[in-house]
Amino acid sequence: RDTPEAERLELALVENLQRADLDPIEEARAYEALIELHAYSQADLAKRVGKERSTVANMLRLLKLPPKLQDLVIAGTLSMGHARALLGFERPSQMLELGLEVVRKGLSVRQTEAEVRKRSREPKPEREVDDDRKRHEIIVADLESRLRRRLGVQAKLRTGKSPKGPGTIELPYADLDELQRLLNALLGET
């Protein structure tokens, strides 16, 4: 990798990055090429090209945009501010949908940010909710089974409205001796 040819390529890329006429996607691709060429960290690359690490990181994030939105950034139809706001979505399909709407309606960056926040709070489609619920039920059933085997009682896990939220573990016992045995098992005492 550190051949004279690799060094020449690096110098050419750094020189091209100093030009003012690169679009943001070209700049991001150049950063990515330098990282791959020399296995630079973002901080190392930032020093090498004379930029802040956060600037390099934000530029590289643009490469997570769907190709159609990258094309709009290259064309100047979608600004860097709009693109960064769209990266607030997890799914490329969400980015693309709102990105095209931004262009069609001429939304400002602030309006785009507000729309990303609003749509991120919207409930998931029913199928995703069902998938999440099934995954949660499988995990809870496995944990209950492990507790039952370990403790020898019919342990029950109860969750609140949100699978990620608070819940309770129920451990029934017949008498104080069984309670003491459960507590010893839980506390790792013999």
Descriptive notes:
This protein has 190 residues and is mostly helical. 67% of the residues lie in helices and 4% in strands. It has ten helices and two strands, in the order H-H-H-H-H-H-H-H-H-E-E-H. It has helices at 4-18, 24-38, 42-49, 53-61, 67-75, 80-86, 92-105, 109-121, 126-151, 176-187; strands spanning 156-159, 167-170. A two-stranded antiparallel ribbon has the order 1-2. Helix 2 (24-38) packs across helix 4 (53-61). It is elongated and about 80 Å long.
Secondary structure layout:
Layout: H1 4-18, H2 24-38, H3 42-49, H4 53-61, H5 67-75, H6 80-86, H7 92-105, H8 109-121, H9 126-151, E1 156-159, E2 167-170, H10 176-187
Antiparallel strand pairs: 1-2
Helix pairs in contact: 1-2, 2-4, 3-4, 6-8
Instruction: Quote the distance from N terminus to C terminus.
Output: 59 Å
Shape field: elongated
- How big is the Rg? 26 Å
> Could you state the oligomeric state of the chains shown?
single chain
How much of the polypeptide forms β-strand, as a percent range?
under 5%
Helix-strand sequence: HHHHHHHHHEEH
* Low-pLDDT segments: none
Query: How many strands, which pairing sense, and closed or not: the largest β-sheet?
Result: 2 strands, antiparallel
Widest beta sheet: strand line-up: 1-2
Number of DSSP-assigned strands:
2
Kindly name the structural category: mainly alpha
How many helices? The count is: 10
What is the helical fraction, as a range of percent? 55-70%
| Global mean pLDDT | 85
